[in-house]
Each structure stands twice: as structure tokens, then as C-alpha cells.
Specification:
Ubiquitin-like (UB roll), mainly alpha, 6% strand, 18 helices, 76% helix, three-stranded antiparallel sheet
Length: 396
């Protein structure tokens, strides 16, 4: 994942923020929220050493649980600021150190999170918790919601474990074939082509492979360094999330990503409602967590209808995006006067469905990876060995 320093504009106001992701992702995120991207500068060194990731979701879970424990026992702010960074390492520790310094300077937990540079939806969550007046209980609720999301993201990351090893193996197989096999095959094919008296010419794709092989053979150590760089970059920057999003465009994992978005939305919605946030603000805060633009637009449409006095379930039904099951859960919550509890139950259902979807994809990817390996090896055999047979026939 890459770190970026992004300058955005909304109306006459400009601000500079840090974003962690790919360029097509941050442009989509900012544009969908009404911002214009003025300038974006990649932070290459920060990305390579990994500190550009800032606080992961799992790190946020740990942060909120530690804060809940400190506030619950009544530690003074100075002591909290001194102890807080010791629970973190690397890039996460740097973010928490900024948070502790800001908390010590201002004494305001919301302002501290703003200055620390954490995502905006986290800041809004902290603001809502601070307004509820019960920081320990609020931070524990936030940690519980984020923990469910972190488990989902962790499952998403694990789907690439096997395919990554396959890609690394293919890189080094290609290196070995290009350095040790291709020069000998090229010499044999060209000698047979000469013996054919002009009746056979080497195919263009095979000739290109021969040229690449000659470069590899002439500079084996440089080629090895290049292959190592490709393997490392692929291992470091290609994530399960990216693969999921690419597969979602093809419709393969769209349901899984949508269920993860439901886990986020209903988890945060239930948490905000249970700590006393009014429903319109709860919808606004919960909608800010979402990545899927259509889901976020539907939530915004629901919020506007609720702000005009329409019941939440009716607004969700009129939006045309939510399933009858989702609407039914919210409607049951309205009938009992506890929408937050029913939203939490639906978040749990969505989490279980997401885990099933991820398990299906995880079981499918090794088969796909083996098929790719088989296709790659067959392609190499056709490109490199079939010309040997053709050239031998023409040389007879």
C-alpha cells in the first residue's frame, strides 16, 4: 500500500491530508465526498518502510481498548500520554505518539485524534463518543465494532498467501528458464533453421523470447536482482483487498465486499445509536465509514429522508438499495424502540455471511493459481519447444 500526501479542495477551503492506498482509490474516495484533488504526492520512502500504513484497523482496536482501560481507572491525562505509545511499534507508534502529544497539549481527545492524522471517520466516531459523556464505555463499543471489521480484513488478506508463493515461484522459474534453457534452445533452433535452407523462419514471439534469454544469460546477476525486485514489490504491495476489488468488478466477490460494508455500517450504526447519538447523525457517521460508493450514496439518501421526518425503515425501503431483510430488522427495531440492538444483530449476520464468502474464494484461488501455473508452463513449452520440432521437420 502506498502513502500519499493529498491536497484537496471543497469550495474555497483547501486542506492537506495523508491517504494510504492506490491513486485510483483516493481519487474515487475524495470525489465521491465532494472534494477536488488539487495535488497528490507519493511518499515513496514511507511506503517502502511500511510506516505509511499508519494505524491499521487492528491497531485502532488496540488503541481504543487501551484508552478505555486508562480512562476507566481514572488515570490523569499526563500519565495516559506517557504510557500510551508503549503499546505500539513502528509506524503505528509514530501515529500514537502524535496523538499523545496532541492530547497533552489540548486535553481534548477529539482534537488529539484530528491532529494525529487518523481517518476522518475515526475522528467523527471519537467526537460522538466524547459527546456521549462516557469515554470508557464508548471506546469499548468502538473497539468491539472495529474488531469485527479487523477480523474480516484479516481473512481478506489471507486469501493471497498461497497465490503469492505461486507468483514468486513463477518469477524464479522464468529466471531459470531464461538463463539456462533459452540460450541453448535458441542455438539449436537457429542451427536447424539454417539447415532448412530458408524453408523455416523462427516465429516472432519465439525470437522475442530468445532475445530476452540472451539478455538474461549475458547479465545473470542483474537479471536476478530484477526478478528479486519484482517478487518483493508484488509481495509487499499486492494485497487481498486489491484482488477482492478486482474480482468484484467481474462480479465474483461483489457479495463478499458488500457484506463487509454491511458489517461496518450496521456495526457503527448500532454503536452510535446505543451511546445516544440521534439517528440522522448516526447515519452520517456510519456512512462515512463506507468505501462502496453506491452504498454510501444510499445511506446519504436515507439520512435526508429521515431528516425530513420519514421513519428509518421506510426511508431505507424507498432508497431501493437495501434488501427486505435489512429493512425488516430495522423495522423490528423501530417497533420495539431499540434499533441499535437489531442493527447489531444484523451486523453479526453479515459478518458470518462475509466469512462464508471469503472461505469460498480462499478455496477457489489455489485451484485458479494451479491452472495459471499449468497454462504458463504450457505456453512456455509451445513458444520454446514447438519451434524445435518445426525446424527439425523442415531441416530433413
Amino acid at each position: 500500500m502506498l502513502a500519499w500526501e493529498v491536497e484537496v479542495q471543497a469550495g474555497a477551503a483547501r486542506q492537506t491530508v495523508r491517504f494510504y492506498g492506490w491513486p485510483w482509490t483516493f481519487r474515487r474516495v475524495f470525489l465521491s465526498r465532494g472534494y477536488t484533488v488539487v495535488r497528490a504526492k507519493p511518499l515513496i520512502l514511507e511506503s517502502l518502510r511500511g510506516s505509511g500504513r499508519g494505524l491499521t484497523t487492528a491497531g485502532l482496536v488496540r488503541l481504543f481498548r487501551v484508552l478505555a482501560a486508562y480512562y476507566e481507572v481514572g488515570l490523569p491525562v499526563q500519565t495516559i500520554c506517557k504510557l500510551l505509545p508503549h503499546s505500539f511499534k513502528g509506524g503505528e507508534r509514530r501515529v500514537v505518539e502524535r496523538l499523545a502529544d496532541a492530547l497533552l497539549d489540548t486535553g481534548n481527545v477529539t482534537t488529539a485524534f484530528e491532529r494525529a492524522g487518523v481517518p476522518s471517520h475515526v475522528v467523527e466516531t471519537v467526537r460522538a463518543v466524547a459527546l456521549s459523556g462516557d469515554l470508557p464505555a464508548g471506546f469499548r463499543s468502538v473497539a468491539d465494532v472495529l474488531d469485527r471489521i479487523a477480523k474480516g480484513e484479516s481473512a481478506m488478506g489471507r486469501i493471497l498467501t498461497y497465490p503469492k508463493w505461486v507468483v514468486v515461484a513463477l518469477v524464479w522459474i522464468t529466471y531459470g528458464v531464461m538463463v539456462f534453457a533459452v540460450p541453448r534452445i535458441a542455438e539449436l533452433v537457429r542451427s536447424l533453421a539454417d539447415a532448412s535452407g530458408g524453408r523455416y523462419s523462427v516465429p516472432a514471439v519465439t525470437e522475442a523470447a530468445f532475445k530476452v534469454g540472451s539478455v538474461f544469460a549475458a547479465h545473470p546477476f542483474l537479471a536476478a536482482a530484477g526478478c528479486a525486485a519484482v517478487a518483493v514489490l508484488f509481495w509487499k504491495f499486492v494485497s487481498g483487498r486489491m484482488v477482492f476489488e478486482l474480482l468484484a468488478k467481474a462480479g465474483v466477490t461483489r457479495r463478499a465486499l458488500l457484506n463487509l460494508e454491511r458489517v461496518k455500517f450496521y456495526g457503527f450504526l448500532s454503536m452510535f445509536l446505543q451511546i445516544g447519538v440521534v439517528v440522522t447523525r448516526a447515519l452520517l457517521y456510519a456512512g462515512n465509514v463506507l468505501v462502496y460508493s453506491k452504498f454510501r450514496e444510499a445511506v446519504e439518501a436515507v439520512r435526508r429522508q429521515v431528516d425530513l421526518g420519514m421513519p428509518l425503515s421506510q426511508a431505507m425501503r424507498s432508497a431501493g438499495f437495501f434488501t427486505e431483510e435489512e429493512v425488516g430488522f430495522v423495522e423490528s427495531g423501530e417497533n420495539t424502540g431499540d434499533v441499535g440492538r437489531f442493527a447489531k444483530q444484523y451486523a453479526q449476520i453479515a459478518s458470518e455471511r462475509y466469512e462464508e464468502d471469503v472461505a469460498t474464494v480462499t478455496n477457489l484461488l489455489p485451484v485458479v493459481a494451479l491452472a495459471v501455473v499449468a497454462g504458463y508452463m504450457l505456453g512456455m513449452a509451445v513458444v520454446l519447444l514447438l519451434p524445435v520440432y518445426d525446424a527439425a521437420l523442415n531441416a530433413m
